[in-house]
């Protein structure tokens, strides 16, 4: 295949590089813009972080001042006379100082003093809050409230004092329920156990139920403790005042991440297991930005940038030292969009301008590239056609670039190579017959290498040899492979093929004499030949064989074609290995199938050969259906895979018999199980005969007439002999059991014999469990001569049940019992030797066959095997078993096997319960089955007209069975519609 290229003046490709200069300029502009944007973002980020850090520093300083103001107040109070006051009047004298402290520091919630004897005095400004109103219910014009507790003579006297704006007492209210001991509070204990100012962790105030912190200090040389309360709302107001931006967020936490404050106010307090209120932990709070903060590696004094919900935030953490207490943590977060709004707007404007310039530059570059890349676009289109394996048209490219012209020619050569490779690969992969594949490998590889001669050797690892399986010379296939010696891999190192393998070279030169010596090809000219050896290996590197190609020296294979042939040999090796594995698996499967069929036949000496004869007869009938050109099967044909499925189905059609007990399959008499129980019955008759003789002798001893006694004994013995002969005749099952025979059988069964030995010792556990269903009789006991005992009934276990609705679609009437060994019951069987339970067990083999086969993972082309093998006991009218299929529901192959199975059973001579039928008798019986719609009429007539019945008879039946059959009498019957 040649490319059709426009003939024009070729110019070098570098002249066209000018088309891309503008594109390079756009690229440089893009890089510059990116650098500008990246640098700007870094500056903005640094600026944002600095602003957050400054905000954090200012907020931290003011928070620290808040704590220090409270601490200073506590220190001043510790030096006041109030700490030494012992009465309420003395403490009220210090109110002006306390009022001054609260007025000058509005952030304080209350000031108070706790005394070592349990007294307590507190002053707070009045705030019109619901909780305070409910607790104090103050009088009108209240501006200040004092809370006092005095311990007088061991009694606590609590009172509330209400003052107006000018500190004039409005009401002195005694509160008996106001019980408070300052000595139990944490702030009191901490101040007494430490020197200097102490700061508490946030807690809920006793009076107001508000959260806050207490700054406390023990008075000098006194055991009284002064305290100053700062409510968290006050701290929150301070932090909110210094918020950098409206969207900024902050967290004030204790050292153990207990959250004191948030930008939204005070968090909800949590209750401990003891019912006390505590601060919530950071891990217990929920929210997008909070969840993000939890995972940040944020330590005190550090700053970091986080992204949440698509927006960047500057985050800073500060540690706040608290006088006399654990440090606090202040976390601040501000969105960049608020911190850097103007700067971001300027940056975005610059980016928009850069983007517009970039779009203009890209448009120009695309237009220029369009002009320069048009030939490449055409080559890309051709490459896509090759990718789609479209080789219908030659490569056509309009180009003026020398390099593109060369590329088009290379692609055209590649296209031809791929087309040839795919053609050969498909041919090798499509062949499923192993022998035809060997021929195809040699012929196709010869064509690819342009070699007149080719020899294919296959490796035999066990023997260590290379055996010739195919040899061709100028399209002539050599059949006499024996003329070419089998190579010993370890011994015949002088052979050229083995030299190629040993030296790991692709080819060597041979003289005509060497060609004649080693390959038996008589060639006079030329003087030298090239032997090319292609090792065929599987994916593990194991040698499968060698393909030897013989070429003349003048037409020696080129390096390019050798590469192609070497690559193709890999495909050939894969096809060879695949088909060889399939062939070996088929051989193994066939061996397993025949092994199973042989085991089934060997299981019973009376059915040996059944599993071998049915496949032969079925395939005879199938071949007749394929060969006929008239009738309903004129268009019938079988593919190779369908024949394989039929073959496997025939051999496995009775595989379920491995589950059928041998004594049921081979039951020749009615009382036979593992042995014929007629011997037990005979022994009972022998006992009765001995009893009769003993009774006669006993009568003579007692004075009876010897002659009359002898006559009676002879009559009794004759009757017993006759009765036993009748029982023995019934046991054979050769005649129909009429009603009169059943009556006599039951009458004989009523005779009694005396048993004196225990029949429950020395027996198996299973038999003993059946006998245990009824109580043991006291010995000696008279028993019936024949009986249907409870112990004769074998119950059907759950796994032996067949539900009406089952996954296989079986429609079988399952007997209640698994077996019934009753003697009267079995001897009363009307026809044959099998009871209802045993006949079901016999029929159940086809159920087991279907179940076993459907469990096997047959490949797709063998999916029909269970249906073919499992349908040979179905009837055309839907009364067969196990699925009650009709003719329309059965495949032709299943109906063929039904005919083969019946005919083989009728004519077999190795059955214990019947003799093989004459040929004419078998045909007549099968004709009646046709009339009763048991077997396919059209197939039966084909069975006769094709001569399959006679061909089978001559091959498998006894000579004395083969008699004349007038098939015309059976062909005149009208053909029913299928």
UniProtKB/TrEMBL annotation:
Pfam families: GAF_2 (PF13185), HAMP (PF00672), HD_5 (PF13487)
UniProt domain HAMP: residue ranges: 370-423
InterPro entries, A to Z: GAF, GAF-like_dom_sf, HAMP_dom, HD/PDEase_dom, HD_GYP_dom
Listed CDD domains: HAMP (cd06225), HDc (cd00077)
Residue ranges of every copy of the HD-GYP domain listed in the record: 750-959
Residue ranges of the TM segments: 12-36
Entry coiled-coil feature ranges: none
Keywords for this protein: Membrane, Transmembrane, Transmembrane helix
Protein name: HAMP domain-containing protein
């Amino acid at each position: 295949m040649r490319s059709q290229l426009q003939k024009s003046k070729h110019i070098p490709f570098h002249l066209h590089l000018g088309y891309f200069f503008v594109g390079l300029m756009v690229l440089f502009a893009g890089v510059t813009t990116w650098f500008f944007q990246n640098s700007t973002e870094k500056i903005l980020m640094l600026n944002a972080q600095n602003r957050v850090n400054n905000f954090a520093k200012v907020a931290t300083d003011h928070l620290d001042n808040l704590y220090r103001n409270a601490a200073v107040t506590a220190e001043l109070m510790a030096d006041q006379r109030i700490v030494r006051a012992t009465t309420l009047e003395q403490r009220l004298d210090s109110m002006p100082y306390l009022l001054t402290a609260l007025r000058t520091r509005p952030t304080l919630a209350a000031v108070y003093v706790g005394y070592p004897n349990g007294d307590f005095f507190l002053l707070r400004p009045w705030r019109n809050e619901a909780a305070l109103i409910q607790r104090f219910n103050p009088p009108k014009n209240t501006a200040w409230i004092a809370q006092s507790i005095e311990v007088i003579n061991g009694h606590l006297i609590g009172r509330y004092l209400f003052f107006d704006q000018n500190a004039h007492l409005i009401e002195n209210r005694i509160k008996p329920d106001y019980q408070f001991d300052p000595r139990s509070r944490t702030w009191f204990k901490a101040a007494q156990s430490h020197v200097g100012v102490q700061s508490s962790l946030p807690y809920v105030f006793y009076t107001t139920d508000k959260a806050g912190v207490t700054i406390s200090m023990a008075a000098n040389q006194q055991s009284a403790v002064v305290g100053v309360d700062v409510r968290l709302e006050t701290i929150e107001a301070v932090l909110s005042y210094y918020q950098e931006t409206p969207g900024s967020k902050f967290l004030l936490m204790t050292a153990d991440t207990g959250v004191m404050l948030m930008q939204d106010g005070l968090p909800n307090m949590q209750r401990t297991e003891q019912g006390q209120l505590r601060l919530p932990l950071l891990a217990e709070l929920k929210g997008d930005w909070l969840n993000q903060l939890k995972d940040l590696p944020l330590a005190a004094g550090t700053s970091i940038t986080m992204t949440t919900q698509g927006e960047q935030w500057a985050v800073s953490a500060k540690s706040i030292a608290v006088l006399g207490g654990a440090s606090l943590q202040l976390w601040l977060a501000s969105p960049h969009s608020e911190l850097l709004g103007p700067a971001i707007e300027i940056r975005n404007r610059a980016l928009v301008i850069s983007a517009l310039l970039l779009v203009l530059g890209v448009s120009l570059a695309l237009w220029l590239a369009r002009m320069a890349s048009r030939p490449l676009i055409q080559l890309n289109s051709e490459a896509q056609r090759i990718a789609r394996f479209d080789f219908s048209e030659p490569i056509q490219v309009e180009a003026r670039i020398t390099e593109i012209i060369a590329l088009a020619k290379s692609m055209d050569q590649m296209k031809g190579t791929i087309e040839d490779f795919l053609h050969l690969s498909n041919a090798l992969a499509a062949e499923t017959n192993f022998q035809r594949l060997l021929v195809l490998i040699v012929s196709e590889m010869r064509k690819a290498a342009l070699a007149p001669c080719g020899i294919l050797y296959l490796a035999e690892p066990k023997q260590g040899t290379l055996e010739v399986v195919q040899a061709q010379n100028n399209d002539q296939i050599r059949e006499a492979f024996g003329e070419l010696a089998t190579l010993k891999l370890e011994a015949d190192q002088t052979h050229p093929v083995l030299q190629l393998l040993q030296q790991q070279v692709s080819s060597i030169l041979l003289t005509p004499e060497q060609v004649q010596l080693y390959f038996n090809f008589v060639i006079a000219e030329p003087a030298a030949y090239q032997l090319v050896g292609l090792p065929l290996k599987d994916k593990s590197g194991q040698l499968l064989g060698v393909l030897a190609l013989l070429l003349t020296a003048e037409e020696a294979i080129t390096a390019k074609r050798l590469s192609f042939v070497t690559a193709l040999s890999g495909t050939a090796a894969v096809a060879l290995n695949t088909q060889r594995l399939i062939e070996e698996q088929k051989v193994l499967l066939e061996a397993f199938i025949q092994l199973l069929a042989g085991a089934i036949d060997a299981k019973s000496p009376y059915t040996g050969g059944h599993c071998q004869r049915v496949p032969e007869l079925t395939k005879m009938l199938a071949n007749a259906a394929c060969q006929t050109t008239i009738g309903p099967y004129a268009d019938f044909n079988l593919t190779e895979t369908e024949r394989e499925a039929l073959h496997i189905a025939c051999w496995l059609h009775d595989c379920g018999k491995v589950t059928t007990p041998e004594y049921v399959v081979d039951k020749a008499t009615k009382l036979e199980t593992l042995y014929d129980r007629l011997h037990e019955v005979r022994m009972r008759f022998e006992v009765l005969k001995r009893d009769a003789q003993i009774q006669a002798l006993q009568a003579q001893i007692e004075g009876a007439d010897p002659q009359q006694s002898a006559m009676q004994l002879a009559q009794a013995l004759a009757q017993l002999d006759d009765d036993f002969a009748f029982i023995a005749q019934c046991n054979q099952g050769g005649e129909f059991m009429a009603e009169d025979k059943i009556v006599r059988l039951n009458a004989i069964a009523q005779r009694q014999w005396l048993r004196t030995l225990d029949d429950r010792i020395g027996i198996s556990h299973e038999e003993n469990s059946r006998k245990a269903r009824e109580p043991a009789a006291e010995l000696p006991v008279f028993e019936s001569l024949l009986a249907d005992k409870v112990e004769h009934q074998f119950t059907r276990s759950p796994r032996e049940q067949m539900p009406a609705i089952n996954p296989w679609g079986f429609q079988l009437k399952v007997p209640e019992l698994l077996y019934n060994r009753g003697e009267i019951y079995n001897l009363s069987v009307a026809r044959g030797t099998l009871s209802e339970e045993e006949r079901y067990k016999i029929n159940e083999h086809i159920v087991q066959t279907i179940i076993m086969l459907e469990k096997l993972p047959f490949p797709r082309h063998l999916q029909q095997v269970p249906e073919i093998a499992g349908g040979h006991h179905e009837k055309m009218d839907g009364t067969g078993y196990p699925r009650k299929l009709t003719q329309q529901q059965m495949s032709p192959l299943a109906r063929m096997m039904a005919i083969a199975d019946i005919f083989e059973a009728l004519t077999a001579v190795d059955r214990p319960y019947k003799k093989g039928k004459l040929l004419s008798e078998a045909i007549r019986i099968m004709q009646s089955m046709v009339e009763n719609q048991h077997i396919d009429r059209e197939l039966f007539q084909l069975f006769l007209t094709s001569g399959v019945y006679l061909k089978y008879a001559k091959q498998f039946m006894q000579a004395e069975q083969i008699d004349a059959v007038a098939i015309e009498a059976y062909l005149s019957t009208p053909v029913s519609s299928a």
